[in-house]
Write a structure and sequence with these properties.
CATH superfamily of the largest domain: Outer membrane efflux proteins (OEP)
Shape: elongated
Order of helices and strands: EEHHHHEEEEHHHHEHEHH
Number of strands: 8
Oligomer: single chain
CATH architecture of the largest domain: Up-down Bundle
Distance between the termini: 48 Å
CATH topology of the largest domain: Outer membrane efflux proteins (OEP)
Largest sheet: 4 strands, antiparallel
Helix content: 55-70%
Radius of gyration: 40 Å
Number of helices: 11
Number of domains: 2
Structural class: alpha+beta
Mean pLDDT: 85
Amino acid sequence: MAQFMVQRGKTYKTGSMKLTRHFIIFIAAILLFLPAGAVSQRNWTLEKCIDYALEHNINIKRQKVEAEKATNNHKQSKRNLLPSASAYASHSFNFGRSLNEDTYEYVNERFQVGNMSAQSEVALFNGRENINTIKMRKFEMLAQLERIEEARYDVTMNVVTYYLMVLSSIEQKNIREEQLAVTMDQIDQIREQIEVGKKAKGELLEIKAQAANEKAELTRARNDLAMAYVDLAQIMNLDSVETLQVKIPESLQVKEQSINNTEAVYSRALETFPSIQKAEYELEGIKKYLSVTKGRFYPELTLGARLQSYYNELVPSPYIKQLQDINVQGGVGVTLRIPLFNKFNQYTQVANARLDVKNSQLGLQEQKQNLYKNIQKARNEAVAAHENYQANLEAVDSYEEAFKYAEEKYEVGLVNAVEYRIAKNDLSRARSNAANAKYSYIFKLKILEFYMGKAMSI
């Protein structure tokens, strides 16, 4: 097998095969004709992550199945207004002492008899039970559709959370890499100064210790980033984390913006938030169920029709003629069923339905209270996060000036390596804190946008 060693952009042959122009063209052709997804899958925007998670989330799929069942129940409640119809047919061979239904005399003969009948029935009035059931099933269907949106909201917010964690981890890693690069450049400069006698060798050891510490911090930052990717992939139900690489926004600067007050956000959330809409539909559905139980106290009036015929072998007439002419019977009539007493079962059902309505009203009230509390908390956290972010930006400016001053003094020997390292560490910590504060502030703003039903994007 041919082997190659690549160093500083040059290729050295270590086997018998040469890296020819044809081989390069072959590799380029493979890359050119790769499916678009093979490239784009490593460039995940927040919107793409959300779409993928929504498509592959099992809870959302299960809620959709339940929505299909609720839709079927709603359709069936409408179909229950249609007349019912049934047909019946039988044929038997009689022997021994049997009743001749035409003469109503018992005979001791072998003969055949056949019966055919059809009947239909439709409810004219049943205390509006069918109508209220249709409305109840409709509200149940609407409530289930809101459960789908509720699940979508949860998944969306989880993806936003972990996506921002990835971006924050990337920025933390970049800060550590920049700090380490500065330290490595400083090591090269000190070596040159030691050679000409301007610096003591002890200062080189101090800077090397600083570099070792920064390498350890960089390793931790890279591990944190890897775990952030794992968390994001898991919340998306993505099979392989290796294909996941988020797209870094071109500009993620925090813009100054006014934070809506709690009442404004709450007012908007009442109109759009799925948990509130679901609770309202559930309440309306239970109210209709109460109407259904009350309707069962009323009499039920139905219209029915029947048609029947029979064949008797003892009658001297052909089979078809008996069925079509001689023995045909039919009728149309109405039936009135009046509920008189059923051991107070219906009273108990109505009483329990009233309690269900009251419980649902309390549940809706609790949902609204919790929503207001969560928005109030989110708004206060957003204000605090903004203030914290501004304070950290000021701290970065101050530590940058302090480090610049310490660096200038260090180059001319006015401060030692320890003082220089302290100033550098302070700046690194300030930048790290500012990055954390920035993403915390962005996340708090996204929560408020989430409650207002805005699309999640960066």
